[in-house]
Design goal:
It is built from 24 helices and 15 strands. It is of the alpha/beta class and 672 residues long. The chain folds into 2 domains: 222 residues, no CATH class; 304 residues, Alkaline Phosphatase, subunit A (3-Layer(aba) Sandwich). An 8-stranded mixed β-sheet has the order 5-4-6-1-7-9-2-10, with helices on both faces. A hairpin with a 5-residue loop joins β12 and β13. α9 runs antiparallel to α10. The radius of gyration is 27 Å and the shape is globular. The N and C termini lie far apart (78 Å).
Length: 672
């Protein structure tokens, strides 16, 4: 009897045109609802033509979902398939909402999958706190609302019957029509079509076309990742004033004909591009640090605002008695591992969280670890957290440091208390310095962790320094906790400098400190424009990605303290660190082979990100909107912005090519 009733209900549903229309419309409206919800939860818009793009692509996706879930001759299977697909899609949207609200940016699928396990370990408590908050649960409820409505309302109206051939073809063609209309509309907008094609960026694609389109475009990029054919645009040179040449080029004698791999190969395309790049000149600072020791520190969640003459006198001394970088940017592309990748390799992490891992297969012979190792330096890489985190036990043993990599689990735990996260930078410094201080010249790399979130009173580093920050005026408690955690970095640097001075080698040692990313842990669950704690730290509301990523690079040596200040006031970024150090250490290198610049060279300043945002000394370009804003009082030629766009596209494609080939081994096969 029950089966007969169900069959009768199904036949009744089949006969209802309204119910059939609802069955078709549900996945379409479901996708569009999720896209609008994501935009509301994260981007706060823009509510313009991009919503229409999103609607057209959502309709196409929804119709294809309906088609796929109507293939079975069993109605129950089709309805069950729709539920599963909708739940899966809702989970995908939910993950992206909470990823964005954790890191203030969308992470592509590769980054989520590559760093998911480690991120859950490092940020698990933070994420749980955000998800199970009242606002987090409310967002989850809204994301799942269509699934709940289908289960308890629309499912009864859905016959779930199999489509006939004509019906299937009609639905397919209708979906194709929506998709084609979306592509045509995009092609009529120069900015949108650039984001859709040659200036694709995951962040901008989601903003303009929706999450599912962003994932689809990202999958296409991944599938074509080894295709570097015809990706480098010719650049029209700007008319510039001729300057007298005093120094030679930072250029090596590379026989590109001898290393040719044949037309059309990725390596050959990179070779041809490199030969079009004008090398930069050596300068008065070339070799300034030649033969000196190097200590490079990637500082967890460091920001320029940590530097204070009273609160952090050592960091203040290093920032102001060394080379002063007043307009420095640390692009946040793939969390900590992405920031480390930028600092060490001078490249953007094209493959997100997988980028650093890919390098473990390469001959990394053009980075400071390898360059100084070839000069006989004693090298170490250190980290005061789990040595396997982000697979550092694999990646960091391939950076050229002669003694390899040590973290908690393969040696560091003898000095660092691992009972609470984050661990102490001071304890790491105290434990490791005797491994190298008597073995000059040395080349040391530290990845710190004391500045890690959560920024509350339970943070072990904040507890250690709470008395020093609790009476600070003008700061929220979260910001006080953040500053307290960073006082452990201050203590570590104070100890390090004192030991170097006591040993009498401070003048012969160079210290570099660069952040891995901005302190996104200050405002879990908030958007950029509602990040009150970040705004409190910065002293102003954060309005865009470049503003968010503004930071401070520290480059100091005791030998600079009694000299006139060296100030770099042009835009610089983490990609400029490696070429600048290679020049300062007088290394043999080729400036054509790195997308960043030696900041003391004659090359024009250029900061650029994976979102195709860029900044020069003449103005700023925003990739998502395609708008160039010249600096106040600056006039540029009509072709200026378009030329720089081409330069940026070429540099990003070059970063992509280096990550998809062992290019430096191709160029220098005998160099280890």
């Amino acid at each position: 009897m029950k089966e007969d009733a169900e069959r009768n209900q199904e036949h009744s549903n089949e006969g209802s045109g309204i119910n059939r229309l609802l069955s078709i419309a549900f996945p379409v409206l479901f996708i569009f609802y999720e896209e609008l919800l994501l935009k509301w939860f994260t981007l706060k818009g823009p509510w313009n033509i991009t919503v229409f793009y999103t609607w057209l692509f959502s309709a196409a996706f929804g119709l294809f979902i309906f088609l796929i879930t109507s293939l079975s001759k069993h109605p129950g299977i089709n309805r069950f398939a729709r539920v599963l697909v909708c739940i899966f899609i809702a989970v995908v949207f939910g993950v992206n909402v909470f990823v964005y609200r954790t890191f203030k940016m969308f992470y592509d699928v590769q980054t989520v999958l590559a760093g998911g396990r480690d991120a859950l370990g490092g940020f698990g408590g933070d994420v749980r706190k955000m998800v199970f908050s009242s606002s987090g649960l409310a967002r989850i409820a809204l994301i799942l609302l269509p699934v709940i409505l289908y289960l308890f309302v629309f499912r009864k109206m859905d016959s779930g019957r199999r489509l006939g051939k004509k019906e299937g073809v009609t639905i397919f063609l209708l979906g194709l029509l929506f998709y084609a209309r979306g592509v045509i509309l995009v092609s009529m907008n120069p900015t949108a079509v650039s984001v859709y094609t040659d200036e694709y960026a995951y962040q901008n694609a989601i903003s303009n076309f929706g999450l599912l389109s962003g994932i689809r475009l990202d999958a296409v990029q991944f599938a074509n990742r080894n295709d570097t054919t015809a990706q480098f645009a010719a650049i029209e040179p700007e008319e510039t004033e001729e300057k007298p040449v005093i120094y030679g080029y930072n250029r090596m004698d590379i026989d590109f004909d001898a290393i040719s791999t044949g037309a059309g190969t990725p390596e050959q395309n990179l070779d041809e591009y490199v030969q079009t790049v004008q090398p930069s000149h050596k300068n008065e600072y070339t070799g300034l640090f030649q033969g000196k020791n190097l200590i490079f520190i990637s500082a967890e969640a460091f920001s320029a605002e940590v530097i204070d003459p009273v609160l952090t006198p050592t960091l203040y001394r290093l920032a102001n008695k060394g080379i002063q970088f007043t307009d420095y940017y640390q692009p946040a592309s793939a969390g900590t591992t992405g920031g480390e990748y930028e600092n060490i390799f001078g490249l953007l992490p094209i493959e997100g969280g997988s980028s650093f891992k890919i390098t473990s297969r390469f001959h990394n012979n053009m980075i400071m670890g390898s360059v100084l190792n070839r000069q006989g330096y004693n090298g170490w890489a250190f980290h005061n957290n789990d040595y396997t985190f982000y697979d550092r036990h694999i990646t960091h043993n391939n950076l050229g440091y002669s003694n390899g990599f040590m973290g908690c689990g393969n040696g560091m735990e003898q000095w660092v208390d691992t009972s609470g996260m984050p661990e102490s930078d001071l304890e790491m410094m105290e434990g490791t310095i005797d491994l190298y201080i008597n073995k000059e010249p040395f080349n040391i790399y530290y990845m710190t962790v004391s500045g890690h979130s959560m920024y509350d009173r339970n943070n072990p580093m904040t507890k250690r320094h709470w008395e020093e920050v609790k009476y600070l005026e003008g700061y929220t408690e979260s910001v006080k906790c953040y500053l307290g955690a960073n006082l452990e970095l201050e203590a570590a640097m104070k100890y390090l400098v004192e030991r170097l001075e006591k040993k009498g080698i401070a003048d012969n040692t160079v210290i570099v400190i660069a952040a891995d990313h901005f302190p996104y842990g200050l405002d879990y669950g908030e958007d950029i424009d509602t990040s009150d704690n970040l705004a409190n730290l910065y002293g102003h509301k954060v309005t865009d990605y470049l503003d968010r990523d503004h930071n401070r690079l520290i480059l100091w040596s005791g030998c600079l303290e009694d000299k006139d200040p060296i100030v770099v006031d042009t835009p610089t970024s983490s990609l400029d660190i490696l070429p600048t150090l290679l020049n300062l250490f007088g290394a043999e290198w080729d400036s054509r082979l790195l997308p960043g610049r030696d900041v003391f060279s004659d090359r024009s300043p250029l900061v650029f990100t994976l979102n195709y945002d860029w900044k020069t000394d003449k103005g700023t370009y925003y990739g998502a909107s395609g708008i160039f804003v010249p600096n106040e009082g600056v006039t540029v030629s009509d072709t200026y912005a378009e030329n720089i766009r081409k330069v940026v596209k070429n540099k990003i494609n070059y970063c992509r090519g280096l990550l998809h080939t062992d290019y430096f081994h191709h160029v220098f096969p005998d160099l280890e």
